[in-house]
Amino acid sequence: MKIYYCFIVFFLCFGIPAHLLKAMDIVRDGKPQATIVIPDAGSELVREAAGELQYHIQKATGAKLLIIKESFRPINKSCIFLGATKAAQEAGINTKKLEPNGFVIKLVGESFFMVGDDVSGRCGYRWNLRRKTKSPAKREKVFGSLHANWNRVGTLFAVYEFLEKHLSVRWLWPGKLGELIPKTRDIVIAKWNQTGKPALVHSRWRDSGHVNKKIGWKSPKAHMQFNENQSKWLRRHRFAMGVNQDRGHTFVRYWKKIGKSHPEYFNLLPNGTRRPDGYSGNVAMCVSQPKLWKEIIRKWQERYEPGQIIGATENDTNGKCTCSACMAWDEPDPALKFPYEQRLKYAKKAFDANEVEWESNLGSLSDRYCKYYLALQKAAEKIDPNAMLQGVAYANYVKPPLKAKLNKRIFIKNVPPYIINWKKETEQAFEKNWKGWEKTGCSQLLRPNYTFAGHNMPIAYARPFAKQFAFAAKHGMWGSDFDSLTGQYATQGPTLYVVARMNNNPKMPVSQILNEFYKGFGPASEAVKNYFKHWEQVSKPLTDQQLAAALNLKKRSLEPLPWRKFFLVAPKIFTPAVMAKGRNLLTQAKKAATGDTPALQRISFLEKGLRHAKLTLAAQLAYEAYRKSGKPLGASQAIRKLDAFRASAEFDGIANMGVLRYCEARTWPLSLLKTLTRNQSITTLPTVWKFMWDPDKQGLNKGWQADKFDDKKWHNINITTQWELQPLGKKWKAEHGTDYDGLAWYRTTFTVDPSASNKRVNLLFGAVDDSCVIWVNGEQVLDRPHSKNSWQESFEVDITKVVRLGKTNTLVVRVKDKECAGGIWKPVNLLVMKKDNFKKRLLTNPGFESNRKGWKRHDRLGKFKFEIDRTVAHTGRKSGRMTCTAFGSPQKQRRYRGRSWARWYREISVKPGRTYRFRVWAKTSVKFDGKVVALAVEPHKKTYTATTLNTNGNWIELRTPDFKAIGDKIVIYLISQNGLGTVWFDDAELSEKVSE
Ligand SMILES: [Zn+2]
User: Fold this and answer.
1) How many other CB atoms are found less than 10 A from the CB of residue 498?
2) Average of per-residue pLDDT across 599-627
3) CA-CA distance, 542 to 423, in Å (whole number)?
4) From residue 458, how far is each of 490, 535, 613, 620, 648 by CA, in Å?
């Protein structure tokens, strides 16, 4: 007893240096030495912060710290106090004066405090108004989609500050694999007294809307997990909106609501009217009109909360008002190519000539819009002397004003052009523009669209991005709003990491950030650096011309380059050679990482990304081939392969599958391609058949079509090319002086596996030149007439009823060749498909055999001819066709967002709750360059779609997904849109499922 006592006294008094006496052990030698303490009424936020702290410390040291409520805190033990505890209050830590999302980290004796500006459920006025019904628990959510999350999370940010500074934790990408948590045995704090805040008071990287789609994810769970990991990653990089300065387009509903009663609020067009100009659905405002300001202020007051900003941004449109008051507010634009005084004349001329963007002749309207912001603000100051207002640098008010001066309470969202090819000129233009607005004295937000770029391809733009972001930060950037985070982590990882890391560290050199990223690959860090250098090189030399050529944009400017279509250009940039080099570099990295498991796992993550990119490129190329050939099977297979890969990797966090499929679905006719995959098996029949000429038309009488007919003495012929090109045909020509035209007979046999009972069996003929009659086992199954393109079309015959399973079947084809080449000249396939139990057919006159009976017509855009075609049919003798001869007027094209649109349609009564299927056969003329769409529409409820592009003259089945009827009516549409040329429809079928 005595010995112990002496020892302790000795230790306390003499053993430890004085400065260490104040230090606090959190973990010592892998053992927990402290407890995490949260307030008794701990909010969701503090619980999350405690969880994050506990998780990372355990990963680093192996020690799991306890989390307990303050009332149960251990006495005489080191504590980490999170959030608004009594202990923090007693220690005199005041959070009231903190900046939004700010925090205090402080060591006081054996107590370590991390406390922040936490405001749960304070979600801004938008949230309060629109989501009143949401449960408090949901409003408290710290993670989840951050897009509209205005919770303040200072305590959580204190924890992240601690983890980053003290434990050197880095978060390379969302999910566990992206976490870099260095191992240590001890965590000791000697001294800490810090008041901090995130670098930007308002920072957002949009993670919902276009980038958060259910489509593309096989498992909803994978989708959810991806989003949760991602939003946690954004928080870890301190994305938060401490102040709600978020306003969208202000006047979206104005025209509809008060266009008639108050036309004076709206733009005066050159023809003297005030209304939308017909080129864009969005009307612009008469911004010099004091009554308009009054209306805006009235609306602002209606929902007023202290500090609430006034939305004053145009309707996603150019300024267009030509009234004298608005025009008087402008400053002469030096960029105009004619005398400034004549701009109204030029604008009118362009307007009268129906020119799109006629208003470009007015020049830059930035001074006008700045004067409007100021006037509006002045009027609002009568109500709130600190009135704030949001405008935007965009459209024809994107350039800095020449004269106007603003103030800090005017917030300008600066929208640089969408870029995928970063170049010196774009960088310089950005800097000039940003500086110009800075000079006006406004508060600027950086609101770019460039993080939309790249689909899932390994593009890299970290360096030019960093330069731009650092420039904006140096020049007074108040906040950021990035649209959007597409989440392609396995291919664009370094760039995404730089964007995230700079959010809270705008001054950090980009090379340092990139090195942090590469460090995650341990011994392979140099090799991985080389791998991404390669992609940097590939991304660099993209020129406007290259992109424009690849996208076939022709005269259209590149600026609004559609990000949704980047994958269409991708094969031109990511060529096989470029991809192979990337693959090689990754193999080298793998070698360098031998034996290092975490490094190998991260390299395998990159490998999955590269494979994903490769499969996407292959699918796009197959789609291009399909566009040319009209044959969809290859594209169907490539997309199937891509989908199978995505399904296998969707839990790995390599990519946001939703945004990819959302983009792809706008181009690839997925419903058609997926219909094809329903074919359970395709077998190609042998290509050598028995053959006989029939110049005297005696075959039928002699029973050549019969099942049992003996054809041993017939010739052999190949069915992959016309007879004229084969020895048999050449022999005929040598003997008769001319090529053979007339009747000829083909015979072969085939077997079908007995497993096909209960299945549908079809024969798919590649092409027969010209007309033919077909028998299976002696039964006639098709009489196919001649038509203009019949010689080159594929067609199907249903033989389910006559086929003998497990036994030999005979197939006989009598070909009639009217002129030129003749015969079966493309392989014949056997399709075995699932038999369905959709038996009850609901349509009368489904194939136009009774002409137009029952079918209605409607052409909305463009010039169309509707006709019954008596020579072309999928089955029977007739089909319905529509031919587009001219596109709609420019105004109508803008209004309907397309070039042409017409339909056959009809309404059918159905039974709610029953399952239905809609399908129709369609073919297009060879040069048709639009889209064919079949729709089953439940009025005001749901729409089911199947589409195809040019079918190259082939008949193709369009089939919507099966659906359960909600209401008692279905309208079916057969549509031709956005293309000149003819579309035929035949054999429409709406059928009801018969219960078994
Ligand atoms: Zn005006």
Assistant:
1) 23
2) 95
3) 9
4) 8, 6, 8, 16, 20
**In angstroms, what is the span from residue 238 Cα to ligand 1's centroid?**
43
SS3 category, 662 = helix
CA-closest candidate to residue 658, choices 229, 223, 205: 223
Which residues partner with 702 through β-bridges?
none
Q: What angle, 0 to 180 degrees and rounded to 10, lies between the N-to-C axes of helices 576-592 and 525-539?
A: 170
Angstrom distance (rounded) from CA 989 to CA 579: 46
For residue 676, what pLDDT is reported? 60
Instruction: List, as one string, the DSSP characters of 514-547.
Output: HHHHHHTTGGGHHHHHHHHHHHHHHHTT--HHHH
Beta bridge partners of 908: 970
DSSP state of 442: -
Tell me the CA–centroid distance for residue 326 and ligand 1, in Å: 4
Is pLDDT at 133 greater than 60 in this prediction?
no
Q: Measured in angstroms, how far is the CA atom of residue 101 from the centroid of ligand 1? A: 42
What per-residue confidence (pLDDT) applies to 126? 40
CB under 5 Å of ion ligand 1: residues: 286, 288, 321, 323, 326
CB-CB contact of 157 with 224 (8 Å): no
Q: How far apart are CA 591 and CA 600, in angstroms?
A: 9
pLDDT score for 15: 41
Quick: pLDDT tens for 252-296.
889 989 999 999 999 999 999 999 887 665 899 999 999 999 999
Please state whether 900 falls in left (phi above 0), alpha (psi between -120 and 50) or beta.
beta
Q: How far apart are CA 115 and CA 84, in angstroms?
A: 6
- How far away, in angstroms, is 378 Cα from ligand 1 center? 19
Q: pTM of this prediction? A: 0.74
DSSP state of 11: I
Helix (H) or strand (E) holding 584: helix 576-592
CA distances to 366, 535, 589, 606, 620 from 522, in Å: 52, 20, 10, 14, 35
Both tokens assigned to 579: 């991809």
CA 626 to each of CA 385, 661, 682, 826, 909: distance values in angstroms, whole numbers, following the listed order: 64, 19, 19, 17, 37
Is the separation of the CB atoms in 275 and 263 below 8 Å? Answer: yes
What whole-number distance in Å separates Cα of residue 404 and Cα of residue 203?
27
